[in-house]
Structure formats: C-alpha cells, structure tokens
Amino acid sequence: MLKIGSLTLAQPTVLAPMAGLTDHVLRQLADEIGGCGLLVSEMIAAEGLRRRNRRTMEMIASSSLRTPQFIQLFGANPEALSEAAAIVSAETAYAGIDINMGCPVPKVVRSGAGSGLLRDLPRLAAVVAATRRSTALPLTVKVRLGFSQVNVLETTRIIEQEGADAVAVHFRLKSDGYTGSARWDLAAAIRENLRIPLLGNGDIMTPVFALEKLKTVDGLLIGRGALANPFIFREIAGQATSESDWGGYVRRLAALIAEHYPERKRLGKLKAFTRFLVLSRPGSRAWKRRIFLSQDFVEARGFLEETFPLVEEP
Ligand SMILES: Cc1cc2nc3c(=O)[nH]c(=O)nc-3n(C[C@H](O)[C@H](O)[C@H](O)COP(=O)(O)O)c2cc1C
Is the CATH number of domain 2-236 3.20.20.70? Predict the structure, then answer.
C-alpha cells in the first residue's frame, strides 16, 4: 500500500503531470477507466496562482473525482510557492501538492524554476520548506537525476529533510531532455537513501515493464505510456482491455473535449491527446495522418470513430 503523507493510494500508480495534456479531460477519463492511484494536473505557475491570474484560475478549476488529484506547482520564489500552496489548501479540492523540479523548458529554467532548481540547492531547500510550512496537504516533489550531472542522492535527501512526503524521480538528467533511456538502474540507491516513498518515472510503456519496475520503487509515474494506452493503469492492476473499450474511449474523449473546450481549441486538443496512441496501436500511422491533416474537429472525430468502431462483446 503506497502512503503519501496522510493519503493512502488504492494503487501504486500515478498519471504523471503533462503540460497541455493532464487537464480535467484526461484526468476525468483516467478516473472513469480506473486502476490509477493518483492523478497530477498540468504544471501551474505559483506566481499566477498567487496573483489569481484569470487563466491560471481557469486551469486549476477541477471537478471532484473518485481518484485523488494533486496539483503541480512550479516556481523559483519560495514566497510564491508558499502563497500558492496556501490558496490550494484553503480554496480547492486537490488532495495534495507536487512541486516541479524537472521541467527542462528554457524559459522555465532561466527563471530558476523547474530543473533550474537542481543546480541551486539552497533555493531548492527553501522552496520545499516554504511550501511545507504553508500546507498540511500531502506534498511531493518531482525531480530529474540532476541538471547536467547526477546529484539525485543529494537533492532527494534535502527534499525529505525539508518535509516532503514522497519524491518522484524521472531517471534522466535535464541535459538528456527525452533522449536515451531512463536510468532505472539508479532506483535502488536512491530508495536506500530515503525514508519517504520513492516514485519512479521514465519510459514505462507496457504493463510488463511496469510490474518489473514496481519491484524497485514504491510507486510509478506514467506519462507518455498512459497517452499511448489509456488502459495501462488498469492493465497493471490485472484487467484486460477489449476492442470495444477502445471504441468507447475515443468517443468519450471527443465528447469531453467538446464539453470542456470552445470550438477553436477542440481540434488541437484532439490531436494532442491522440498523438501518442500510435505507439500502442499497430497500423495506426494511416489514421494518425488523417487526423493530423484534418482541418476540422468534427471531421477528425469522425475519422477516429470510424477507426475505432464500437464492437459488440461476444
Ligand atoms: C507533453 C509533455 C508534457 C510534460 N509536462 C510536464 C509537466 O508539466 N510537469 C512535469 O513535471 N513533467 C512534465 N512532463 C514530463 C513527464 O511528467 C514525465 O516525467 C516524462 O514524460 C517521462 O515519463 P514517461 O516516459 O512516462 O512519459 C511532460 C512530458 C510530456 C511528454
């Protein structure tokens, strides 16, 4: 049983935060499919939240789901993190807070946030401490192995000392971007060094790989693998997926996009959410192309529904 502070997860698996993707649509779908222990939001600017920026407030709006949801905050200013965490605790239904210390996007790194914190350890410590002081909610921090050199034993130890309840590690350096393979061989040493749970992340694309890696960490964060196969969490928990599940999935996805987004944004969202499906569906290049060339949400939705018919169960 994976415990993060006061929260016990029903499954040791987490939908990893992904900007532009783990919005309410994807989280609601993951919740409806089931099998996932925790859902993490897109990254949210602590400064935007502290200032109650209109767009930020729209992004954090969330409906309550059966699966617990964490909000992921990013920022380099301890005070901003502290104020943002206080707002999340007092005014939202999120079950916990995750701090982003892995984002490699240049604009974020230049501001000192995301993976920029991995090369400024006093600031990293201050950010965790300030957030911890202002919230009693379960608190996690997501890091990479280091900025350009591995310093994950040091960073995760500081994160534990400053009061986080769990740490998630994407087993790549910031300088790796998304290249090469995630270095799962480092999991054991990191875990030995900590008392709080270690969640491992990187390249989990199949239930078999997930179950193997689950032996080396306390829980798993899955990002692209959950976009490629939205049923991966429940498959890890032992439930098989049928063709009609896929048919149901694409219809529900399109319906939720139509419900949550204005017309001008729908096609872009549909393309973003289906971009990775090709990785788990052999022969899907042809329909992927059709969707990508599509100029219209209704048309793309039609292609998808044609490609994934609703098959009757025998
Ligand atoms: C499109 C995209 C957006 C991402 N956005 C975030 C983010 O907002 N916060 C974060 O901590 N990680 C973000 N990540 C990184 C993922 O959470 C995860 O660490 C990474 O994709 C490796 O895991 P995976 O191999 O399971 O995808 C993003 C990844 C992708 C592909």
Answer: yes
